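Quick start: what a row looks like.
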Amino acid sequence: MPNADRTHSVTRRLFLRGTGATASGVALLADMHIAAAADEPPIVGPGAIPLTLTVNGRNQEVSVEPCMTLAEVLRGPLDLTGTKIGCDRGACSACTVWLDGAPVASCMLLAVDVGARAVTTIEGLAHGDTLHPVQEAFIAHDALQCGYCTPGMVMSCAALLERVPNPTADDVRAAIDGHLCRCGAYPHIVEAVLAVRKPGP
């Protein structure tokens, strides 16, 4: 039919031309993807990776899974079991350590995110056999019972004294706000910290 409308007809030539262009486009996109992948950094994980942490003044080489928290690495590969894991969700503060001198819940921080920052645990607070003044005061004022919350409490109280040498009772209560002591030793904890504060000028 010579007069038929050929506007929407597809000839073999047009079909082959179209499929050829499509194949060329797919090949080009594949080449671009391969080139982009070559520029991307290598994927880390899910297996264990080497990591260097500065803990209590020493560089520690460990192999950890990227999903491990700082608390898990401290208690596991590094065998620093003074840091306790209570709730494992940042609500009880039993796992408190120092990160560059600031108290943090180590269960809420991935070990791979620590970087070059210095970690101090309860084991690093004392100097050899000489306890930190806060540790001695906790013993003298009976500021602990079961002891599970004690390492975290001590770390936060010692950090307070580093910032505020002569804190008030309210300062101490604010420093341990968020620390859960099921034994209810809070009054003795406040007394212990006040006993080692440095008088102002």
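That is the whole record. The chain has a mean pLDDT of 88. The first helix runs from residue 12 to 39.
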